[in-house]
Amino acid sequence: MSTVTRAGLAEQIYTQVGLSRIESVAFLETVLETMARALESGDSVKISGFGTFMLRRKGRRSGRNPKTGMEIPILPRSVIVFRPSQILRARANGARE
Question: Short name of one Pfam family for this protein (predicted)?
Fold first, then answer.
């Protein structure tokens, strides 16, 4: 098992699409920046056949410091969640297209 990196994605764009290496990196950065801006503004990013990235807001809650046992407040925050499509879920479970 290996990790997918920006460099690896840019290399795949270079070899499969035929853009230059510099254009491939710029293309990838544009796509990632567009996704990040959409999530920053609270929009979901849906990639058909892959899945949906969504921003979920979590409210204030209390937690416990595992070391001391003291109760501490956990402030409200936003988290990014990913929901895979049925196609991706099936592929991850070994189904063929």
Answer: Bac_DNA_binding
